[in-house]
Amino acid sequence: MQSNAPALVRAEHRNKWYQSVWFNALWTLLAPTAFFVAMEWLHRGTLLGDDFWPQRLAPHPQAFVLGWLFAVGVYVLLSQAFGRHWPASLALGVVAYLLGIVNYFKLQMRGEPLLPWDFTQIGDFMGVAGSVHLAVEPQMVIIGVLMLGVVIAGVFVKMPRAPRHARRRRAAIACAGAALSAGIFFGIYMNEDMCKRFNIYTDMWMQDRYYKNYGIITGFLTNLRVLDLDAPQEYSQEEVDAILARTQSAARRKGPVYEDSYVARTDAADVEKTPNIIYLMNESFWDVSRLSGVEFDRELTPNLHALMEEGAYGRVYSPSFGGGTCDVEFEALTGFSLERLPAGSKPYQQYVTRDMAALPQYLKQAGYQTLAIHGYYARMWSRNTAYPHLGIDEFISIEDMSSPEKRRGFVSDHEMTQQIIEQYESRREDGPLFIHAVTMQNHTTYSAGRYPDEETVKVVSDPGFTQNTIDQLQDFATGVHEADKALGELVEYFRNVDEPTIIVFWGDHYNPLGTGYEVFEKTGTIEKGDTASPALHQTDLLIWSNYGAGAVDLGTVAAYELSPVVLDLYGLEKPLYFEYLTQQLTDGYRARTRGVTVETDGTFSSELSQEQQAWFDDHWMLQYDQMFGEGYTAAFGE
Asked: Is the CB of residue 552 less than 8 Å from the CB of residue 313?
């Protein structure tokens, strides 16, 4: 009788193989699931509470499932390519951990998550990384240990050993994983209509909310779709010419925007035609003494308040919070809005790669010398390559300064005043001068010990801040006080200069102070959790000249309206595009920035009326034409 032992052995091996296959399949689902959950946990700080399940995941389950399936597909591809689980677990785990951590910290620092175009700015981040102090949260350590445990466990999960055609099977499975991820990416994420079928709607104005609603993977990958900007549907020379013709016709009928402005009070023959113009954008400046319930041991901005009696004043509605200085200066110099550009994109690095219409470009054609001064490295935000395309002929950065005075580790505001004066004096005989200066002294982050104790502004009354918050607030307030002092020095010098000179001073953006938004919430500046409040986007603005005294209340204007307002106040000739923007101020709205409309009466809304939508669309038509299109605007009337 023939023994059936070999058959039993084969059956046993086959059973073990099937068990191994099922266990591997289960692990292939569990490992990426663990990393996916850990990444979202790190990103949000917690997965508990109402902010996750009922408000985020439950209304948008398709987005999270797609993100998870994408991760599974990548894991399948990697594990089959390596023939082992642990390298795939290590690779995916490291990426997931870094994505979660970076998103968390970027939300804390900037109010926005990691975006695809951030990778073009790694060098800029490294340039300021030494001054940024980030606290490691306990859950980051716990999650890191748990993820490491998954990687180690993957060492002991062996791939099933098929008797024949093992490589073919692995290749086929790897291709299936790649097809899954590629299908989700190209078939859904890169297709707006397909995204809508899966209940995914792009939220460019609030990327923090977008990532919370749809998850990191879905949020990040769908953002890749908007890197390619489409032309307005009706874009053509005829449409551009029609907008400009209406603007030109209205300009003949309309007077100055502000009735109390210098040009409104001066005969046309007496208006100064080519004054020096100095732009001074001060890092993080806003009048912190406005905080309700907080008192300091001295008046913080006496010069600003005094000069408001002599010049135009108001607020700049900034497109940025917590960083992105280049966004604000791009708007101010060009008149172009970030509203239709991808949120978080950096125009200097992505779009200003050829000569582009801008105030310095226009002034240079009118015979001005054009100069920029910055108290940091020339490569920061790619200013060294962007400035020439905007018409700035010379750029002086920290590399060009000889032993500049520093405060808090940065070139001081006093030093920047001296640099402006020095450059003016060396060029005053060569015709009118435009200077664009950007300071650094009060750059985030803030802490105790950045100034000598006797020079530090003290908080004498507060609504219950922690000591850490008080330390940060005192550091920031000291910087504001010294910026105001430097402004006073600059104005005092040009008050005694014969050549007519305009000084435009404003802050680029607000920064977080304390833990999260504690300072703004406890002082009633914003409602708790209202991190998109317009109150966090209005920095102080002063436009002063040594020849046109008189207070003018500007209200709140967009950063992209700054140059048109300056030229309008002083009756300086302006390009037709700037004329369009000044008309928009009175007939449309004061700003449309990050989904917020500043109405002509100074109130705020999130909607646009039908008439305002027309202004908004026409603005984009002209902006697109000059940034990406055929340049019909420049050729109008030829």
From this structure: yes
Of residues 457 and 171, more confidently modeled: 457
For 9-18, 36-45, 392-401, which range has the lowest pLDDT when averaged over its residues?
9-18
pTM for this model (two decimals): 0.76
Bond before 445 cis per omega within 30 degrees: yes
Q: Which tens digits make up the pLDDT trace of 348-388?
A: 878 888 899 999 999 999 999 999 999 999 888 889 989 99
H helix intervals, 114-229: 122-128, 138-155, 166-184, 192-197, 207-214, 216-223
Q: Are 594 and 353 in contact (CB under 8 A)?
A: no
Nearest to 614 by CA among 254, 239, 250, 255: 239
Instruction: Give the mean pLDDT of the chain.
Output: 90
What crossing angle do the helices spanning 576-587 and 610-627 adopt, rounded to 10°? Answer: 160
Calpha distance 77→186 (Å, rounded): 17
pLDDT score of 90 more than 60: yes
117 versus 363: the higher-pLDDT residue is 363
Task: Provide CB contacts within 8 A for 496, sequence distance 6+.
Answer: none
343 or 398: which carries more pLDDT confidence?
Answer: 398
Entry field: residues in the chain: 638
Of 568, 105, 534, 577, nearest to 323 (Cα)? 105
Strand bridging mode 406-407 / 596-598: unpaired
Q: What is the DSSP string of 394-440?
A: EEE-GGGSSS--EETTEE-HHHHHHHHHHHHHHHGGGS-EEEEEE--
pLDDT at 1: 47
b vs e for 237-264, b when ≥16 Cβ sit within 10 Å of the residue's Cβ?
Answer: eebbeebbeebeeeeeeeebbbeebbbb
Q: Phi first, then psi: give them for residue 228, nearest 5 degrees.
A: -100, 105
Cβ(316)–Cβ(507) below 8 Å = yes
Predicted confidence band of residue 343 (pLDDT cuts 50, 70, 90): low
Q: Which two tokens stand for residue 636?
A: 């109008």
pLDDT tens digits, one per residue of 274-304: 999 999 999 999 999 999 999 999 999 999 9
Cα 252–chain centre separation:
37
Pairing of strands 501-507, 276-282: parallel
Q: Of the ranges 140-149, 323-332, 357-366, which is most confident?
A: 357-366
For residue 295, give the 3-state DSSP assignment.
strand
214 three-class SS = helix
* Number of other CB atoms surrounding residue 86 within 10 Å: 19
| 52, 46 contact by CB (below 8 A) | yes
For residues 394 and 400, is the Cβ–Cβ distance under 8 A? no
Mean pLDDT throughout 93-120? 83
Name the one residue in this structure whose structure tokens are 């449409």.
239
State the DSSP H helix or E strand holding residue 314, giving kind and residue range, or none if neither: strand 312-317
- Residues 6 or more apart from 91 whose CB is under 8 A from it? 78
Q: Please count the CA atoms within 13 angstroms of the CA of 170 that sit on its side-chain side.
A: 19
Residue 401 buriedness (CB in 10 A; 0-12 / 13-18 / 19+):
middle
How many whole angstroms from its chain centre is CA 271?
38
Task: Provide the b/e sequence for 326-346 (b: ≥16 CB within 10 Å).
Answer: bbbbbbbbbbbbbbbbbbbbb
Cα-only R_g, the chain: 29
Q: How far apart are CA 8 and CA 4, in angstroms?
A: 6
H helix runs in 198-299, sequence order: 207-214, 216-223, 237-253
Q: 224 or 67, which is more confident?
A: 67
Q: Is 95 helix (H, G, I), strand (E, B) or coil?
A: helix
Is residue 395 scored above 90 in pLDDT?
yes
